[in-house]
Amino acid sequence: MKIAAAQIKPIKGDILKNIENHKLLIKAAATQNVDLIIFPELSITGYETELAEQLSIDFQDQILDVFQKMAEDNTISITVGMPTKSDDHLFISSIIFEPESKRKMYSKRNLFPTEIPFFSKGESFCQIEISQNKIALAICYDLSDPNHSQEAYQAGSTVYTASVLNSVNGIDEDLIKLSTIAEKYHMHVVMANFIGESGGYECAGKSSGWSNTGSLLGQLNGEDEGILILDTDNDQIEKIYIN
Prior knowledge:
Elements: E1 2-7, H1 15-30, E2 36-38, H2 52-55, H3 65-74, E3 77-86, E4 89-97, E5 104-107, E6 127-130, E7 133-139, H4 146-154, E8 159-163, H5 171-185, E9 188-192, E10 195-198, E11 201-204, E12 208-210, E13 216-219, E14 226-231, E15 236-241
Parallel strand pairs: 1-2, 2-3, 7-8, 8-9
Antiparallel strand pairs: 1-14, 3-4, 4-5, 6-7, 9-12, 10-11, 12-13, 14-15
């Protein structure tokens, strides 16, 4: 199975322009026969906590229908990041599009302290299945909760994916945590991060993939948009930068 981590430079609050950028990276992944592409945390809006309320949507909103069409047309699964609203609660969510399947959503269960004034915690663990591989979804601070990765392991996940916003000051600590998760639970791990500035943070890029023994197999740079593709069958990495 091939999984792509998309590394993008978000445009603050501009949903339509960010969607167009997502489409470019999905097309690049599709040409490489990727099975799943993951985008960073809140990728459609940028990590803008103070704008999240006004930018939030119901996860079934038709503005994201383009991703279902791309999933169908290219036989690829896609996760994008979006603030979602339900029953007056605001969530940091990954919205999941799969071929021939209804749209799904996973909402972040572990909020960073600065997020607590704005967002509610999600309640459910999320795992998707592609070609008999079970893939657990994590959003940023989820990966810092040992219970989250342990639950993924107990649910039979063979892959752990993390959609993050990671700053140049915080990236190294999280890279160590993700390597430890891969080694401890014998799961492949893939992490997708932003470049540029978002939410007042200087984003670090370095979207990465690890083997199921914890070895770092490959990493994008900290400056350019692109995709990192991990083939879980042979631990091969491909890097494609988008100019």
